[in-house]
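=== RUN LOG ===
request id: a7f3
mode: sequence -> structure
chains: 1
length: 217
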Amino acid sequence: MFKICLLEYLYDLSDVQVIEHIRVNLAYRWFLGLNIDDDLPDDSTISYFRVNCVGLEKYKEIFQRLVDQCIEQGLIAKQLQRAIIDSTHVIADVAIPTWLSLVRQAYERVLRELFMVDAAKAEQYQQKLDTLWTELRGKTRDVKLPFVLELPRELVEIAKPLLNTDVAENPVLAMLEKVIADRNEHATDRLISVVDPEARTGHKSDMRKIQGYKDHT
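=== RESULT ===
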């Protein structure tokens, strides 16, 4: 997985882009030790690996050592190293969904857990969601917002006793509540991805926004 991340670094590719390149580029496959018919990871797996499997701070430490070794061996031009050292943000290579898609993604994560304990109830709330989305198609944001938030709130209350857990103890419930709360116009530190919950929208300047992680090192 670190080799895939190195390809991203060298060729300025996102998680989505690097998988597409690996799919068609034989040199990339050779570098990764993949045969032409080997399955590839999903792009969301790369982000999950960085944040959840390794941990962001540990990932940056290991990746910096990897880049240093490549520079020592003459495989990477030394000036590329500044991209890591000088940056105050680590860019989040995730597809940033619209607020509507974000609500739906968080909602469906709760449904997947609910399905394990009460499939009928999960199916009922999936149908409610599908019906709501159909009814709201073509409506403005202001019209959609109260309806879009009402159903997830209802799901949270239904799911808590069925999952036998409190919101604070269940990551998917907590994420859905966070997404709901973030729709308030005064909300700060908004979550922008359910795939990569650590990602946030930041500001490099008054005119430029980025999606990524604040680097406090």
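=== NOTES ===
The chain has two domains: 2-91, 99-181.
The chain has a mean pLDDT of 77.
=== END ===
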